[in-house]
């Protein structure tokens, strides 16, 4: 059966979906979810694809369907999404408290935040990797929210957009700080993830069919751990100082060193046996990590 999708590409589309009147600004809005009584459903049982950046704070009874899964967020949590992610709200949710900040990518055009928005990787976390915030943290974020709302609710002048974007960037910096805190306060769970990742990585490179499987992708390990690729890389970076791809390359180089030292295989043969399509790519990674080409490494042994 074909999936049904409804696109929400603009702030006006979002207000129409939430029956929330006319937006005060064409590129950014804040919706009080407690005030939403009914929704304009475009297609029954549809998935909704948003062309907006969204930050949602929710504290409610019931479940939220996100994609094909359901999640319980009775405690207050923040969820982030970049444009083109898919959401399908459940009918059995009772919002106790919440707000929905959404902004169009065009809002950031020409700004420093527009250039740096990709560095806020939590916009591409899965919903089960939501940011759980304290009351004090929530109040800090809502101060930014209130300043943004004041700016877009009054008559616009030459300062309006700059002040909106500045307060939005300040809010994202706080979210980044709070995620760092969450990584640290969940050290036991996170260390378990790291140990599982290291086990999966070692097992992958110890298999006899690397040439057939090819080099592992970050997505492979993330799916095995039920994490998003961005969350896994950020988690590893916080605890080890290295991203997922760096860990993959280091394990790859250790495997290559062992083969170079213990066999007479050519560099090309080793590259193909490790899953590379092009030996030059293997040589480039090896030299980047060791300071020597595979050939020179073998000579030095």
Rg to the nearest angstrom? 24 Å
Number of helices: 12
Question: CA-to-CA gap between the ends?
Answer: 60 Å
Count the E strands.
9
Q: Report strand %.
A: 15-25%
Strand count, sense and closure of the main sheet? Answer: 6 strands, antiparallel
Low-confidence stretches: 65-73
Assign the structural class, choosing from mainly alpha, mainly beta, alpha/beta, alpha+beta, or little secondary structure. alpha+beta
In N-to-C order, the SSE pattern is EHEEEEEEEHEHHHHHHHHHH
Mean pLDDT rating: 85
Helix content: 40-55%
What spatial form do the alpha-carbon principal axes imply? elongated
Describe this structure in words.
The chain is α+β, with helices and mostly antiparallel strands. The chain contains twelve helices and nine strands. Strands 2, 4, 5, 6, 8 and 9 form a six-stranded antiparallel β-sheet that branches. Strands 1-3-7 form a three-stranded mixed β-sheet. Strand 4 and strand 5 (69-72) form a beta hairpin. The longest helix has 26 residues, at 160-185. The protein is elongated and about 75 Å long.
